[in-house]
Amino acid sequence: MKISRKYIYLCAAILLFIGAGLYFYWKLEPSQHFRNTDIPVLATPDQNMNTESPIPTPPAQDTSNKTDADKEQSSFNILLLGTDARDNEASRTDVIILAHVNPTKKTINLISIPRDTRVNLPGIGYTKINHAHVLSELKGGEHSGTEASIQAVSNLCSTTINYYVKTNFAGFEHFIDTIGGLDIHLDETVKFTYVDMILEAGDHHLNGTETLNLVRERKSLSEGDTGRQANQALVLKTLAYTLLQPKNLKNLPSLISQVKEDILDTNLSDSDMISLAWMVQGITEDQFQYTQFPGQSGKEFDPVVKTKLYYWMPDMETWANESQKLLGD
């Protein structure tokens, strides 16, 4: 029986398509991708910086020397930083979120760190954690600010930091507009303090400017800064879902390029970002947890401005217990 050349070509094309799909899966499926990736370690905690309330928990593991079997259960931490910079001015970190990711179990724990959290900074003393970026940036440039923020979070949380993503207001707005905005469901009405606008509880389609206003608003929320941090977590999750919608999948390579233009700095590769977006799109509510770093309000003298300031006073004893669950595998 003679087989037509057209039939052979069709079979070859199908086999190539299946092979390409398997290769794509092997390379980018989250558990596969990060199992075959040498996960970097950017910072490890300096316990000497927690002299007031040392934390007995060990840092998260360094996966660089692990066997393949070990790596199957490995997790890593991503630090998300949002700065208040516009143009080239020195900036504070307005958004600080530590994401603990386990690609095998497909779980993400977001720990929101209030920008007013009181921490011990080298050569400065106990001040607000968002001062780490601006003070180091003024001395050594933008990347010095990034490194100082990474180390400050590593010290506070007593864990390693593996990846980071840093963006500013303008970049954030532009990227949200690039993907056509976000569909957000709000459980609470938000009345913006500095903008003549109200978002009623319910479903909304927000553009870049509106989304930025949402993640910055705290004064009108019933839970204040805690409510703002919850909204920040909501936006992050919605953003990941939106990136992997059918209308955006065909444009994913160009969207990743746009991410790199709008983000100030990151050590995530293109494939890392696609793999993470894939993971977030597939997880359920019980696999995605959000919490705020434990503590309480207080006032203390600040060595930077030479006066008493409002602080979020971290509860290190509570964190020592909670971190076992939040940052463990």
UniProtKB/TrEMBL annotation:
Listed InterPro entries: LytR/CpsA/Psr_CW_biosynth (IPR050922), LytR_CpsA_psr (IPR004474)
Transmembrane residue ranges: 7-26
Swiss-Prot/TrEMBL keywords: Membrane, Transmembrane, Transmembrane helix
Span of domain Cell envelope-related transcriptional attenuator: 92-241
Polar residues bias spans: 45-64
Family label: Belongs to the LytR/CpsA/Psr (LCP) family.
Protein name (record): Cell envelope-related transcriptional attenuator domain-containing protein
Originating species: Paenibacillus segetis
